[in-house]
Design goal:
Layout (H helix, E strand, L loop, with lengths): L1 H6 L49 E12 L10 E14 L2 E14 L2 E14 L22 E6 L2 H10 L10 H6 L10 H15 L5 E8 L8 E9 L2 E7 L7 E7 L1
Antiparallel strand pairs: 1-4, 1-6, 2-3, 3-4, 5-7, 6-9, 7-8, 8-9
Length: 259
Amino acid sequence: MAALSATLDLSDTAAKAGDPLPALWQWLYFLSWPAGRELGADGHPLNGHFLPPLPHRQRMWAGGRCEITEPLRLGEPAERISSLGTVTAKQGRTGEMLFVTERREFRQHGRTCLVEEQDIVYRSGRSAGEHPAGIDESAFPDTDAPWQLPLRADPALLFRFSALTANAHRIHYDSPYCQGEEGYPGLVVHGPLLALLMLELARRHAPQRRLRSLSYRLRRPVFAGERLLACGTRVDDRAELRIATHREERHATAEVTFA
């Protein structure tokens, strides 16, 4: 938690045992580090739990949900139980696509604290996609949302976040691969990082309110060097959140409800 706080320039580096872990920060725990020989050309593991046998498999994190009974507590033993949820096959332009939901239950002291679902899309083959030809590092997003958190993700930030989450996907650190093989104009900002930034809005602007549930969707990529803005609006017992750049108002969206 201290390492992620420092990476994002937050003020939680002095967190102590017993403090609540912010929502979704469990992504930094229970990590898997496969041997280098077990990685594919893109940096993702070749094999592992819930990985489908698709040729030239491409993995995309589409979104997820989380129900929170109580937050996880720092410094206390915890366990995670992972299982496979729904699997839906579809036919896309470049081949077969599988929509996979992974369910993860987190427990402490024999109690279920939170249940998370992640929606992962596996695609066979590659698609050029609709991405900008270049990156404009000077343009700012324009919004009048009451909650705002600006960020300009640089390669150092992406590298540190990849290390903290055991993510070896080359689109986040290897510019020649990112542009030549994947067709992006530059390094891609992690989808989970965008989700955490949106949730940081609720943590900063409603610090006394405990989250009961959240959902998020990752829509269009943001690239290193672009000026992004996490913005949001509170409506009664919930908040609507999003990630904006000058190109797009909703690169990612989220909704949280308060207990």
